[in-house]
Amino acid sequence: MSVLATALYLGPAALLYLGAGVVLLADLIHGRRAVTGLLTLVTLALAAVWAVLQIGGGAQGPILGGAIVVDSFSLYFTFLLTAVTAAVVVGTSEWAAKVEDRGEFYSLLLVSVGSMVLLVQSNDLITLFVALETTSLAQFILAGITRNERSSEAGLKYLLSGAVAAAVLLYGFAFLFGMAGTTSLPGIAEFVRHAGDGLRLPLILAFVFVAAGVGFKMAIFPFHAWVPDVYQGAPTPVGSYLSVASKAAGFAVVLRLFYTGLGGAGTPITHDWAMLFGVFAAASMLFGNVGALVQTNVKRILGYSSIAQAGNIAVGIAAVAAQGTVGPSGVLFFLGTYAATNLGAFLAVNAVSERLGSDEITSYAGLFKRAPMTAVVLSLCLASLTGLPPTAGFIAKVYIFNSAIQTGEVWLVGLVAIAVVNTAISAFYYLRWVRTMILDDPEDATPIETPGGAQGVLLLASAAVLFFGLWPAPLILLAQQAAAALLPA
Question: What is the reported pLDDT for 83?
Answer without folding.
Answer: 92
